Fold this protein.
Amino acid sequence: MSALTRRESRPFLDLFDWMDMPMTVFRPLIGPGIRVEDFVRDGHYVVRAELPGVDPEREVEVSVADGVLSIKAERHEEEIDKAHSEFRYGAFSRRVVLPPGADEDHVQATYDKGILEVVVDLKEKEAKKAEKHVPIKQAKAAKAS
C-alpha cells in the first residue's frame, strides 16, 4: 500500500522547476506563464494554450491589439486540506506577436478539455505584381587617348 508523502521545504529549487521555466528566479516578478503552441492551419493562425482547471467564461480573457494577442487567466485555489500540491494558482498571462497579415477583426476563441484555442484569420496576400524588367545599361568605356 502506498501512502502520500509530505514534502518538506527545500533549500534548493527543484531541477524540474528550472527545466519548466529557466527564469524561475524571476517567477515572483513575472508570474507563471501559460504554455502555448502556434501554427497555421487552412489559412488561419492558431494559438493553443494550456489552461486546465479554469472557467473560461469567468477566469479567462483574450484580447488583440496592435498585432499582439494577449491571454490572461486566473486559477483560484480550493480551500481543502492538502498534504502536497504542485498546482499553480493565481494570475497567468501570455502575449503572442501575431504574424504579418493577421486580421485582428476576425478572431475566435474556444475552450475544450483544458485547452484554449484562438484562431486568427490571415488576410490573403496581395496579388503579386507583374515582374518588372529592369534594363541594364552598359557603362561607357573610357576613351583611350
